[in-house]
Specification:
The protein has one helix and four strands; from the N terminus they run E-E-E-E-H. The chain has 108 residues and is mainly beta. Strands 1, 2, 3 and 4 form a four-stranded antiparallel β-sheet that branches. The protein is extended. It starts with 25 loop residues before the first strand and ends in a 19-residue tail after the last helix.
C-alpha cells in the first residue's frame, strides 16, 4: 500500500443527524457531573443518555439540567429542571435536595 496525499479542505466529515423527536428507551450513562454554565453562571447537572433500542440504538444524547432553585432571566425558579430529570430517569427517590434525584461526586 502506497502513500496518499490527503488535503484536509477536500475532506468532508459526515455528522450524524440528531435523534428526531419521539419516544425512546434510554440508558443513563456514568460520568454525570455538576458544572457552572459559562453563559449564565448557573450550576447545572450534565448527563449522558444512550438510546437503547430501535433505529437509533447506541446514539448518545447529552442533556443539561440547571439548578431548579436558580432563577431565570425573568426571575422565575427553574423548577421544571427537577421534574424533567425525574421524568427522564424514572426516579423519584431523593438524595440531593436540589435535584431530587441523586448526588454526583467527582471521580478521584
Amino acid at each position: 500500500m502506497g502513500w496518499e496525499t490527503v488535503t484536509l479542505a477536500d475532506t468532508k466529515l459526515e455528522k450524524p443527524a440528531p435523534v428526531p423527536v419521539g419516544k425512546y428507551i434510554f440508558t443513563l450513562q456514568p460520568g454525570a457531573a455538576y458544572r457552572i454554565n459559562p453563559y449564565n453562571a448557573i450550576q447545572e447537572l450534565n448527563v449522558r443518555f444512550d438510546v437503547t433500542e430501535g433505529e437509533f440504538s447506541g446514539r448518545p444524547m447529552f442533556v443539561s439540567f440547571p439548578d431548579p432553585t436558580a432563577l431565570n432571566k425573568e426571575g422565575k425558579p427553574m423548577s421544571w429542571s427537577a421534574q424533567a430529570l425525574n421524568k427522564k430517569t424514572g426516579e423519584d427517590k431523593t438524595e440531593d435536595p436540589k435535584f431530587g434525584i441523586f448526588t454526583v461526586s467527582p471521580a478521584a
